[in-house]
């Protein structure tokens, strides 16, 4: 089972999840990393779930079109949209205190 | 009289009931999965699908109003689900309309209720009837567990087909992949509500029955789409030839 380590607000949260897990789905059903993972729309629009990958990025798929559209150059800094990722390996990630602003927010 | 099931047994029974009987044999699904539909056929699907899924927040609102106060978690979930369908990000139906336009139809045609088949009207009416008349826990089983929870696995398979076989762009098919996360949350929380609150044999059996009926309604809807729009262009005999070549998982397309 993948081990997830989440850094947020000066604290470290650690837990195990099943293979092929989406952390936003987990948080949405109130399981780890709930309530410590910040997320929003779950559709790759708001970027509230954006996180910097500290370790394990090599196991992630290449960024999809939504991540490219919303994160742009932030991808180069190691940021990913967590709502777009299904995890099967250990991952260590950090969420900034202030969420990223998406480059192309949802329609008003 | 059946026994009261524990959560593991009840969940397995619900999942089995949802599968329905022969739903993956729907000719419209076979035609979709094999790449045989035209954009005009897909436009007719979008014009109908709008009237099935478009009122989803309305269906949930009726359940919300009748859900007992003591089920606070269930009420909060329904409210969150409504919010996410409509204003949590892009409105889901706006993305369906974007897909419809890519298929060659117009927003006006999609929104015009005269453009749905009688069968689609029947499916929509069934959803309204369930939300207004059934015990609210049974209604959650029917609409959230029975219908909405099926969306992620189907759309996860459907999106690559639309890109690769039908050559739609990422943005044109966004309607299909936004559901993968939000509906997975909704479906799973629907299961939690039903498993917790369907706590009598009678309620459990009614939940199972409504999931079976939901599967029948989906099959009815999809089958009608074939006969109303596609049969004149693609006869069953042609689909029978390709059916064996369509991977089993792709035949599940469009059953949600």
Please, could you describe this protein's structure?
The complex is a heterodimer of chains A (108) and B (256). Chain A is of the alpha+beta class and 108 residues long. Chain A is built from 2 helices and 5 strands. In chain A, strand 1 and strand 2 form a beta hairpin. The longest helix of chain A has 7 residues, at 65-71. The model of chain A has no long low-confidence stretch (mean pLDDT 94). With 256 residues, chain B is mainly α. Chain B is built from 13 helices and no strands. Chain B has helices at residues 7-19, 27-33, 39-53, 56-66, 72-86, 92-102, 107-111, 118-133, 136-145, 151-164, 174-197, 201-230, 236-243. The longest helix of chain B is centred in the C-terminal third of the chain and has 30 residues, at 201-230. The mean pLDDT of chain B is 90. Chain A binds chain B through residues 22, 24-25, 28-29, 40-46, 65-66, 83, 106-107, and chain B through 84, 88-91, 94, 170-171, 178, 181-182, 184-185, 188-189, 192.
